[in-house]
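SAMPLE LOG
Freezer: B-3
Tube label: C17
Construct: single chain, 653 aa
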Amino acid sequence: MILEQITEQLTETLTARVLTLFGHAIDRVVLQAPPRLAMGDLATPLCLELAKALKRKPRELAEAMVNGLQLPMFVQSVTIEGAGYLNFRFDRGAFTAAHIRSVMAPASPTGERVIVEHTNINPNKAAHIGHLRNSVLGDTLVRCMKWLGYRVETQNYIDDTGVQVADVVVAFRHLEPKSLAEVKAMIDDPGVRFDYHCWDVYSKMASYYATHPEAQQWRRDTLHDIERHEGDTFEFASTIARAIVKLHIATMLRLGITYDLLPKESDIITLHFWDRAFELLKASGAVIQETEGKHKDCWVMKLDESAEFEGMNEPDKILVRSNGTVTYTGKDIAYQLWKFGLLDRTFNFRKFSTYPDGHVLWETTSGDGSPEAPRFGGAQRVVNVIDVRQAYLQKVVKEGVRQLGHAREAENSIHFSYEMVALTPATAKALGIDVSEEDARKPYLEMSGRKGLGVKADDLLDALQSKAAESVREGRGEGLTGEELEQLGRQIAVAALRYFMLKYGRNKVIAFDFNEALTFEGDSGPYLQYSTVRVENIFRKMAERGVDARLDDASLDELTLTEGLTDEMWELVRLSAELPAAIRRATEALELSIITHDLFVLAQKFNSFYHKYPILNEKDPAERQRRAVCAEVFRQTMAATLGLLGIPVPERM
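STRUCTURE (predicted):
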């Protein structure tokens, strides 16, 4: 990360220089790329800011600063521009020769443990398109944080005791009806998509409740039995939940998404996590039992004095209802305490499954655990990827941690929020959804799982894969076997979907559109794949024809690129060198669209560069090498960054 190193060294040099020359201590130095390449590579308004504090002219200060200034390695010169800006120019050849050896090199390990919790789909039906935004955001964050040197643990919380699972149990018992043995047979039947069947059953149950409100007593009785592990109801619920989770895991694996641990709500209840957290909350005075009013006999967290909840009509949050049942938020506080290692009890762990690459997925258990289980929990930072509608509840969880005296952990309880995913009317029609004339005029259509209106994640992936394969077959599929075409369709579908979920700001509602996601000529995953495959093909053809690009270590040691490195070539190198800082910035801000934007710009610059500077047929060896070096920098940058985005690079397109 040469550019970051140069920036750090310049910052230290300028800070020390100001203190030595003017006896003035500064808190920061702003160093940014100027608006035009002709103005240099980094610029700072430091002297303009100093002029205000020291009551002197900016250019006078700038002249004193540059006189005898020791420049870091790779910085060739400094000039004074405009009213007093300091503009730095790099030694392009030396910088490029060094950068090509460390393109997108991972950061050194920080030692900081981070838990990222994402996906968290209720295990009662098939995953849908909305879940995919959560899982893609979470998985990409995990990949980036690992690349930045953090020790990341990926958790997928399973609410196997909630209302949604209870409703499916009720439906199987009262609407179908089916015995536990019949449900198990259905799960084992390869001809039945159990998560799809449960999707329909759950929707039917919601409709039945609407016309038979008295049936909600079935739900209450079922929830009671599940939470207390009574009768065969708990086995019924856990059998359904476990089968659905396995199918969710398989769906997410299609997108390259994996997990380390599945914490189960049933184990939080059995191991009395909440009971212990409740004791701590009561002892600290964080919760009180109301003695009058509409919350009489409820245990409530008082939030009216917290700045986070200022202006709310009713900020206080019930954690335990008057009937003694605990709310989801109460259990979430207990779980958050465990994730930080602040609860004096823990789970046992056992293997849930093993991924094809050998990575073991673990689950919590209240029974005997495996001695081979790694350490889980005890993080310094916890990121919960949950949609924006859960913002209030996430604030309550954070406040619960804070009121227990854990200010640092509360500060490091981070809600990674995002807006919903909808469909454009055209895409909804393409997926078989009946779209009315009125809805066809809307910019997007909202989904509702309870109403059965939605797109299953696997159906969406199947449709994307089919359309991608069809597009390749019609335009670029000559010579591909059926198996190769199918694999390429899968790879393009993954790129299309993952990139689409990432390229918009997380607080923007996105309307998924087939044509926009699958285009090869715009801001899309397939466009980035095509740009990367294109540069791979350049080097493959050079090797086939025996054309010398001289990119081995010995040749790189002798690189003399300065005179012939044009602005277009240098811009490619600069954009590549800026990406690590962009990835760090995107990760810290939880705004991953920064990465997709910068990568798209880089791909555009390369395609423009290659149109102007073809490599394969260039006769001059020195010029060919300069062009090849820039292309290699681009190739390595794209391959590594697409990996962080979870986008595969096909062998050909």
